[in-house]
Automatic annotation (TrEMBL):
<feature type="domain" description="RING-type">
    <location>
        <begin position="234"/>
        <end position="272"/>
    </location>
</feature>
<keyword id="KW-0812">Transmembrane</keyword>
<keyword id="KW-0576">Peroxisome</keyword>
<dbReference type="Pfam" id="PF04757">
    <property type="entry name" value="Pex2_Pex12"/>
</dbReference>
<dbReference type="GO" id="GO:0008270">
    <property type="term" value="F:zinc ion binding"/>
</dbReference>
<dbReference type="InterPro" id="IPR017907">
    <property type="entry name" value="Znf_RING_CS"/>
</dbReference>
<keyword id="KW-0813">Transport</keyword>
<keyword id="KW-0962">Peroxisome biogenesis</keyword>
<dbReference type="GO" id="GO:0016558">
    <property type="term" value="P:protein import into peroxisome matrix"/>
</dbReference>
<keyword id="KW-0653">Protein transport</keyword>
<keyword id="KW-0863">Zinc-finger</keyword>
<comment type="similarity">
    <text>Belongs to the pex2/pex10/pex12 family.</text>
</comment>
<keyword id="KW-0479">Metal-binding</keyword>
<protein>
    <recommendedName>
        <fullName>RING-type E3 ubiquitin transferase</fullName>
        <ecNumber>2.3.2.27</ecNumber>
    </recommendedName>
</protein>
<keyword id="KW-1133">Transmembrane helix</keyword>
<dbReference type="InterPro" id="IPR025654">
    <property type="entry name" value="PEX2/10"/>
</dbReference>
<keyword id="KW-0833">Ubl conjugation pathway</keyword>
Length: 289
């Protein structure tokens, strides 16, 4: 019987079945290691056991040139992009590495760099945390893009197979449970919305970081002016400053006065720098009685 390109539902079933068997293998490892090493060492090596379980599963199947249990269950086989040859050993090894070990290795490298880096200031800790955050965002975006492409055109459910260039063929088309393509179109729309939301959230967090840096940049200037607030009058109401609040340019006013001013006119009353009510800094620790 002529083979056809594996359908989306066949690939989903195959991946779900493989995940189920990997979890079963992982639970066996857990029981063995807990009994031999005890709870303390087991918790220390738990992340490594996850990787070992996945690598061992693909070693016993894909790296031996055989179908995985999920592929056998769904009736699909792997080939190169041309569809004429089975994947090479290098392709199978690369797939196993990316699928099982790459995310773990990436995060371990960051943790090691964080451990070895000298802690001279909180800036070092923040930069490492930001790097981890960027890596996590990158992984999420790649997964979302892969799923979007999968729902639209099929191809590969696995990112690793898509990167390596492995194609899946359905050798039992009579056993395929066809799903209306409209269902995958709806899933693609939802995936696209999630991807856009992820980009917007990332952009918003970058904006917050920039906002925090601007606050830090003007902190000293604000502090110098706020020391003399007891003797200073607000230039807007000509009264002693109440609920001291500062613009980003460092000028201090009454909270009510500067809010009313910037609501009517989006600029600092002193230097005419752009200023908005949402960006007024309330100096709570300098509040006057």
């Amino acid at each position: 019987m002529t083979a056809v390109v594996a359908s989306q539902q066949s690939l989903i079933k195959s991946d779900a079945k493989d995940e189920s068997h990997i979890k079963t293998m992982h639970s066996k490892f857990i029981n063995i290691f807990q009994q031999i090493l005890g709870d303390h060492l087991f918790l220390k090596w738990k992340a490594e056991l996850d990787v070992v379980s996945s690598v061992l599963y693909f070693y016993l199947t894909t790296l031996q040139g055989s179908q995985t249990l999920g592929e056998e269950y769904s009736g699909i086989v792997q080939t190169d992009l041309g569809g004429k040859n089975i994947p090479t050993k290098f392709q199978s090894l690369s797939f196993t590495f990316i699928q099982s070990a790459w995310p773990y290795i990436m995060m371990k490298v960051i943790d090691y760099a964080d451990y070895k880096a000298p802690i001279k200031s909180t800036a070092n800790l923040k930069s490492t945390a930001n790097l981890k955050c960027y890596i996590q965002y990158f992984i999420m975006v790649v997964k979302k893009i892969n799923m979007l492409a999968f729902y639209i055109n099929g191809g590969n459910f696995s990112i690793a197979k898509r990167i390596i260039g492995i194609k899946n063929w359905l050798i039992r088309p009579y056993a395929s449970d066809e799903i209306d393509s409209q269902t995958f179109h709806w899933l693609a729309n939802l995936e696209f919305i999630q991807l856009v939301t992820l980009f917007l959230k990332f952009g918003y967090e970058l904006k917050l970081q920039k906002f925090s840096k601007e606050i830090k940049k003007n902190k000293d200037k604000i502090g110098i002016e706020s020391k003399s607030l007891v003797k200073t009058k607000c230039i807007l109401c000509f009264q002693r400053i109440q609920l001291a609040s500062s613009t980003f340019c460092g000028h201090v006013f009454c909270w009510q006065c500067i809010i009313e001013w910037t609501t009517a006119k989006s600029e600092c009353p002193v230097c005419r720098s752009p200023c908005y009510p949402s960006r007024i800094i309330h100096l709570n620790h300098f509040e006057l009685s």
